Amino acid sequence: FNEDLSEWDVSNGTNFSCMFYDCTSFNRDLSSWNVWNATDLQSMFNGCTSFNGNVSSWNVSSATTLFCMFYECISFNGDLSCWNVSNATEFFGMFWQCTSFNGDVSSWDV
């Protein structure tokens, strides 16, 4: 699966868990998505080995679960430095085996 979803209105969505689970070919730009209402991003891109989409502008301030969000996203190296993760309580495995990820998350309030 590697379709263009940039026009989707996801602003009312709260649970995005496993949305792209194991979509090994998925690598689309989702920068236009308004996920401000999302509380559960668990395993959203789990196993998306090709994914390196732009999610830098996402407002994830409502998210409480980031558990395994980018698990095994070996190509992902997105800029997440501006993410507000202060409401998140679950980070386990968020970047597990993200061998390309070298993002600066030092400013995150965890």
Automatic annotation (TrEMBL):
Domain of life: Eukaryota
Protein name: BspA family leucine-rich repeat surface protein
Lineage: Eukaryota, Sar, Stramenopiles, Ochrophyta, Bacillariophyta
